Amino acid sequence: MPWEEVTVMAQRAEFIEQALREEVNLRALCREFGITPRTGYKWLKRFRELGEMGLYDRSRRPRHSPRTSCPSTEEAVLKVRSEHPSWGGRKIQWTLLQQGMRPAPSASTITAILRRHDVLPPHEGEKHRPLQRFEMQHPNQLWQMDFKGHFEIMNGLVCHPLTVLDDHSRFLVGLRACHAERSRSVKHHLEGVFERYGLPERMLMDNGSVWQGYHTGLTFWLVRLGIQVVHGRPYHPQTQGKDERLHRTLKDELLRHQQFLDLKDCQDKFDDWRSAYNYARPHEALAMQTPASHYRPSASIYTGHFPLIDYEPNDILRRTDVYGRVLFHARHFRVGKAFRLSKVALRPTEVDGIFKVLFVRQRIAK
């Protein structure tokens, strides 16, 4: 009869006891116990060598594992992970290659090392379906700007991180620790960014109160500089997917690992992290290259002065009144208080009798 799992040791002992008798037919005994002669001879040999200990199952783990990483490789992987606790296999592999490790372990091997040492969250490192990405063809064609959700710092203070990201290169042109989400703070920060990197062609924002619609002083200032302002669809944060992903990275790599004393301390740490993000951290969407390697400053230089407004020859020009209205065909049409006492253009559309209202290059009404 075959050996049952619950009585395997007892049956092995009984088999050995009978196998050791004189003039026993070992093959017939094996048939009686439902095992092959090879198995019978194996257990008899082990018993003669080790006694009763030889009847226990041995580990099936191979004595040599050629695919197991050497201790020095695993140590190097864990060292990079400790320095960058949110990095996965691809970024760690890239870093090891930059450090001169040849050959470096594959990204999947690095993930296995991290999992074996219990330094991966439950679902990190799992394969995901690749996302379809859309981006501008050149730097400074589009910048994404947004406030990341605020967080508390010491002494009851609150920090509101403001981020400005180049869509093409993922280069973080601005990261500011603000005390509140105010237009004045945003403008002051953007002036410094424009002085350093020039002006973008367009800026994409959500529908937050700071830059709601086109009728705020902040968006008036941007449009007057020649920057086209674009707003994402309400309740669709994926419109600013790159900036949203940046915010998750900022949280994973910095905010959850640091304590901040005040806004100055926040800004100091923001500056250090921003430098590493732009110049040292590999980006998977850029074929493991850094954002800085794909970015160059804008050719449109910020002077601090508004450029001349150049409308098309066939545009109908009007100046808004103090209420932000234009007079056209003996009627007042509201454009917005942000554009009061400004020269705007009325341009015919394809629909007869319908005009669109432009300020610089920005359509502000219809």
Average residue pLDDT: 84
Distance between the termini: 91 Å
CATH homologous superfamily annotation of the largest domain: Ribonuclease H-like superfamily/Ribonuclease H
Gross morphology: elongated
Q: In the CATH classification, which architecture of the largest domain applies?
A: 2-Layer Sandwich
Percent range of helical residues: 25-40%
Can you walk me through this structure?
- The chain is α+β, with helices and mostly antiparallel strands and 366 residues long.
- The chain has helices spanning 8-19, 26-33, 37-50, 71-83, 89-98, 107-116, 183-197, 217-224, 241-253, 263-279, and strands at 142-147, 151-152, 158-166, 172-178, 202-205, 228-231, 316-319, 325-328, 331-334, 343-348, 355-359, 362-365.
- The protein folds into four domains: 5-55; 71-116, Orthogonal Bundle (Arc Repressor Mutant, subunit A), CATH 1.10.10; 142-294, 2-Layer Sandwich (Nucleotidyltransferase, domain 5); 316-365, no CATH class.
- The strands form three sheets. Strands 1, 2, 3, 4, 5 and 6 form a six-stranded mixed β-sheet that branches.
- Helix 8 links the parallel strand 5 and strand 6.
- The longest helix is centred in the last third of the chain and has 17 residues, at 263-279.
- The N and C termini lie far apart (91 Å).
